[in-house]
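Dear U.,

Please find below the material for section 3 of the report. The protein was modelled together with 1,3-dihydroxyacetonephosphate; I have listed the sequence and SMILES used, followed by the predicted complex structure.
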Amino acid sequence: MKKHIIGNWKMNGMQSHLTEIQKIDEIAALFDNIMTGLCVPATLIYSAHKDKKAVIIGAQDCHQSKEGAHTGCLSAAMVKEAGAKMVILGHSERRQDQGENSRLVSQKADAAIDNNITPIICVGESLAQRESGQAEKIVSEQLLASLPSNKPQKMIIAYEPIWAIGTGKIPQMEEVREIHEVIFRLLTQKYGDAANDYPILYGGSMNGENASELLKLAHVDGGLVGGASLTADKFAPILKAASQNS
Ligand SMILES: O=C(CO)COP(=O)(O)O
């Protein structure tokens, strides 16, 4: 499977940053043995996706319903029409800020799949859960409850330990390997051989220095990158590491 490196711009990015996306696209085109994506704020999806050579543009959320009285929300069909090919769902920041639970994430995944958008389903434990030895249990429960109703043709899973996001801290390599193996095992139990087609990404303080070591681990099929995806200068070394480990 191709390594997948997907940037999550979170609530960052104005029209003035489209030039940076252009630069990222130029660099992504140099590494054609990997998949490069950028999930940008909804306001940038349309302009960001136009005339891109290599980078695939995604959204950061979608509503679970097709349409209707949901002020301020965007349906999967809307982000698709704007140019999104994938959508991040159940990021820990949304689970926390917007109180999203795994059942809702599963419904959103259904909506994404109905509209031919690849869901990127995020799971991950808190520091307290990690320290009390519950990481595997929490991630397994979250994962199983967040999956779509039917076997999807395309789906991406992102393991993001909450305490590693934006902190500069990452788990021990063995800890990452263990959780990715658990995720792969659960997907295999549920979907059989199709599990081989679902990339499992690591997210949380991935950068040019640690990417190579992380991407060498079994079942680490790529990364979901926050801060280090905001500029071409910081993102490029991660793309290079992915390309070399593909
Ligand atoms: O939350 C993340 C990606 O979704 C990770 O963010 P950082 O790479 O900034 O830690």
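For the text of the report, you could mention the following: Residues 8 and 226 are 5 Å apart (CA to CA).

Regards,
Y.
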